[in-house]
Task: structure prediction
Amino acid sequence: MQCDTRKAASFSPSKSTFLFRRIFPIPTTFNLSVLIVLLALIVAGCRSGQTDAADSAPGAASTIENKGSDTLVNLALAWAEAYIHAYPDVRISVTGGGSGTGIAAMINGTVDIANASRGMKPEEIDAARANGIDPVEFVVARDAIAVVVHPSNPVDGLTLQQISDIYIQKVTNWREVGGEDRPIVLLSRESNSGTYIYFLENVVRLGDKGSDLLFSPDTLLMPSSEGISAEVRQNPNAIGYDGLGYVTHDQKMVAVARDADAPYVLPSVQTVNDGSYPISRPLYMYTAGEPSGEIAVYLDWILSDGQSLVSELGFVPLE
Result:
C-alpha cells in the first residue's frame, strides 16, 4: 500500500471515513473515534516507512553548484571531472551563462561558486552586502585575450590604439591598418560577459577610467566564445577577441603592441607570465563568505593539484 502523507496531513474525518469504508468494509456500529485512531496509525506507519527508507539509503553525495564565466566553463568542467574521479562522493554541477550571471546567482544564494573572468563591480559588491553576503574572491588562473582574424587576413600585428580605433569605428577598412581593401566586421561577446567588460575597459578605453568610449553600435554581439570562433572562421573581414584557450588552429592570432614603439607580442603562457603580452587578466571564483566544508576543500584542490590542468586547457597556471 502506498501512502500519500500530503493527503494524510490534511485529512477530514468525514471524507477519510468514507474512503476507509470503501477500502475496508466495517460494521456500521464501528466507533468513529476508533476509526480515527486506526487512520492515524496508518499515517504514522507510512511516515515511519518513508523515514526508514531514507535512513537506509546510501548517504547522499555532496553537491557543489558552480556557474558563470563562459571563458572559465571548460576549465571548470575539467576541474570538476578530475575532482569527481578522485572523490566520487562529491557532485559538481558546472554551467556557463557569463560572469554577470554567475555573480548574480551567488548573490541570490542559488550557487556555491561563481566563475568570473573579471573582478566584481562595486555595485555587485554592494548588492551582495545588502543581501547579507560578504563575497570572497579567489584568483584561480590567468588568461590572455587573443585578438583573432581570418587566416587569409594579411594583418599580423596591431597596436592597442589601432584595436580601439577599429572597435569604435574610427578605422573601418582593413587597408587603414596594412590589410586589403575590405570593410572590417566587428565581433564581440555580449555585455554580460566578463571578457566583454575587460576588453571594453582595457582595450577600447585603453585603461582610462574616465573614458566613456563604447563598442560601435555595428558590433555583432556573440553569445559565446564558440560563436566568435565560428564567425571568424567563415568571414575573411571579421575581427574578434577570445580567451586564449578558445582559439583554434583555423583562426589567426594577431600580435599586439602596447604602442607603436613597443614590440608586437603573440599571446602565450610565457608572454602572460613575463608580462610582455598586453591583454591578459586573472580569472576568478567567488563564494558567499568564507567557504567551508566540501567547497573549501574543492577550492584548495583547484589552487594546488588542479593547477596541473590549467595549461592543458590553454590558460596560464598560477605561479
User: Anything to note?
Assistant: The first strand starts at residue 62 and ends at 68. The radius of gyration is 29 Å. The chain has three domains: 19-54, 62-142+282-313, 143-280. Confidence is low (pLDDT under 50) at residues 1-60.
